[in-house]
Write a structure and sequence with these properties.
Layout: H1 3-37, H2 41-69, H3 72-88, H4 95-122, H5 129-158, H6 160-179
Length: 189
């Protein structure tokens, strides 16, 4: 890899490491929080079903639009909207509000997953793509594991709602790493 490509790859890994840490931090407690907002396990299933449907609906269009307009603008937008949605989870009170947030969160997850995968492909050389993606995944999984490990301590000390504020703040801060990625530096060029 060229020096700029290696730098871009490391910045992208750092951005996604923070995201994985946040998702790990919220992981099990997000489910508990959503369960407390729904009025039964049936609605819990519906809430997560809505999320997955909207995830599916957004994936194709996010990929298509990021091919046309670039990946970074959408990653910024997704991150900022995602942070707002996480904060809104601390103030929702009705099942309808929960379902709307679940739909928004699903759309964000679908769009970010597609765009991040495309960008990962952009930042890796074809000859070493498997090795690079393996390195990326290994580091991202460590971020998730660290978040999961810390989540119980954070909830016991600060409560579930504070996790949402911490997560939103970390996601916004992590977008700083995107600023330094040169999207025009394609690894296969």
């Amino acid at each position: 890899m060229y020096a700029q490509t290696v730098r871009n790859f490391k910045l992208f890994i750092t951005f996604n490491f923070v995201t994985a840490l946040v998702l790990g931090l919220l992981g099990p407690f997000f489910i508990l929080h959503v369960e407390s907002l729904s009025t039964g396990v049936e609605l819990l299933g519906i809430a997560f079903g809505v999320s997955v449907f909207s995830c599916s609906a957004s994936a194709y269009y996010a990929g298509k639009l990021s091919d046309r307009f670039g990946r970074k603008p959408f990653l910024y937008l997704i991150s900022y909207i995602g942070a707002i949605v996480l904060i809104l989870y601390t103030v929702v009170e009705t099942t309808q509000q929960l379902l709307i947030l679940q739909a928004l969160l699903g759309a964000i997850v679908g769009a970010s997953g597609t765009i991040e995968t495309a960008m990962l492909g952009d930042l890796t050389e074809k000859a070493n793509r498997g090795t690079s993606i393996g390195k990326y995944d290994a580091i991202i999984y460590v971020g998730g594991a660290i978040g999961l490990t810390l989540s119980g301590f954070a909830v016991s000390k600060y409560g579930i709602e504070v996790l949402f504020y911490i997560a939103a703040t970390m996601i916004i801060i992590s977008t700083i790493f995107l600023y330094f990625i040169d999207e025009n530096d394609k690894a296969w060029i």
